[in-house]
UniProtKB/TrEMBL annotation:
Keyword presence, Oxidoreductase: yes
Keyword Oxidoreductase attributed: yes
Name of the protein in its database record: Cytochrome P450
InterPro entries: Cyt_P450, Cyt_P450_sf
Organism of this sequence: Gymnopilus junonius (Spectacular rustgill mushroom)
Keywords assigned: Iron, Metal-binding, Monooxygenase, Oxidoreductase
Gene3D superfamilies: Cytochrome P450
PANTHER family, A to Z: CYTOCHROME P450, P450, PUTATIVE (EUROFUNG)-RELATED
CDD domains registered for this protein in UniProt: CYP503A1-like
Cofactor or coenzyme needed: heme
Single annotated GO MF: heme binding
């Protein structure tokens, strides 16, 4: 409980006491937790095999009790959404960039009315979550669903409800979770709401895909299409697709909804950066438009965001893994962590200064000196948003 409430303070105290060793452990209800405090161990985690250290099992059973809150994923569906994100988010921005810009303008006009020159008070987190829900779902599900107030409310409720339920379930000992979890899990409610809200749309899309296949000329450019094209026949079920869409929203929006306000707050505290960043954005858009190439050349904006991620981050802990090898997991110096142990890294250990600005230091490029999106093959695929 103390770590849940004062996690950063606990890590700071541990760094003072165990910084020389670079690692320490604590006993939680869920079992032993090992916390890495030194960069020397991060490379071991980055290069580990899934059969030795598992991100999936760490997420499902520990971080937010995702096996209870969003549902365990069948083995044949395990990586479907990650493959779609990794392939599509990086390659389709050029044809979707204008749509995303259009949605951003319309949503911002609702949040920040510009009818006069007076100051307006807005609730930052709630409005940022609304904004990114609108914009990302223009990409995920397209119009008109992305502007349906009921749909956006469901997405926002899911993004906020899953962590709350997960933290509540995690308060109970692990052996009680199979019994407690079903009573505390919001998943059945979300399944019912999602299917009732846009199940008919999904059934129509499935029927059109089954009739025309990948050659359907009028198919929308959205994630529903990608799910249908990449999935097996038994996976094309309205309820499964609906929950999968909510899962993708959760993965993409939860961290962003916390991080984007930090960027705005830092910008407000450092107004000297506003002019240079805005000037480069304006000149880049005039030359390239709202394209993938244009976004990639906004170096000052990217650098500012990356620096905020380095200083503030999203969480005190990153690189969550669970030891799956019955023989344990050994670091390069011979230190061995036993089977079933949860390992995570204190995000503060990667706070190093950058001495130059180039492509390898862009925010979307995973690096050992900034663990915001993780490292290695499990670096967050949603970073391309």
């Amino acid at each position: 409980m103390a770590f849940l409430i004062q996690g950063r303070s606990v890590l700071e105290e541990a760094s003072r006491r165990f910084g020389a060793e670079g690692i320490f452990k604590m006993q939680f209800f869920s079992g032993w937790n090992v916390f890495v405090l030194s960069p020397k161990y991060v490379a071991d985690l980055r290069g580990s095999r899934d059969k030795d250290l598992s991100l999936y099992h760490a997420q499902m059973t520990y971080i937010l009790a995702l096996d209870q809150t969003v549902g365990a994923v069948d083995s044949d569906e395990d990586d479907l959404h990650n493959k779609i994100l990794q392939r599509m988010l990086a390659s389709n921005y050029s044809e979707n960039g204008v749509d995303l810009h259009d949605e951003s303008v319309q949503a911002l006009a609702e949040i920040f009315p510009m009818e006069d020159d007076e100051w307006h008070s807005v609730t930052c987190y709630d409005n940022i979550l609304y904004l990114i829900s609108r914009v990302t779902n223009r990409f995920y599900v397209g119009e008109p669903l992305c502007r349906d107030p009921k749909y956006i409310a469901l997405v926002m409720d899911f993004v906020q409800g899953v962590p709350k339920a997960g933290m509540l379930i995690n308060l109970f000992p692990y052996f009680l979770r199979p019994f407690i979890g079903p009573y505390l899990s919001p998943l059945p409610r979300y399944e019912h709401q999602a299917t009732a809200l846009f199940g008919d749309i999904l059934r129509h899309r499935i029927a059109m895909f089954e009739e025309y296949g990948k050659e359907w000329e009028a198919k929308p450019r959205d994630m529903i299409t990608w799910f249908l094209e990449e999935s097996e026949p038994h996976q094309r079920d309205p309820t499964k697709i609906a929950i999968r869409l909510l899962r993708v929203n959760f993965a993409g929006l939860m961290s962003t909804s916390f991080f984007l306000p930090q960027i705005l707050f830092k910008l407000a505290l450092s107004p000297e950066y506003i002019g240079p960043v805005r000037d480069q954005i304006d000149s880049t858009i005039r030359k390239y438009g709202w394209t993938k190439e244009g976004i990639s050349k906004m170096y000052k904006l990217d650098s500012f965001i990356r620096e905020v991620s380095r200083l503030k981050g999203f969480s005190a802990l990153v690189l969550h893994r669970k030891v799956m090898n019955p023989s344990g997991f050994s670091f390069h110096d011979g230190l061995t962590v036993p089977y079933g142990t949860h390992i995570s890294v204190a995000s503060s250990i990667a706070n190093e200064e950058l001495d130059e600005m180039n492509i390898k230091h862009q925010l979307t490029s995973p690096a050992m000196n900034n663990l915001f999106y993780g490292v290695g093959k499990h670096a967050c695929p949603g970073r391309f948003l």
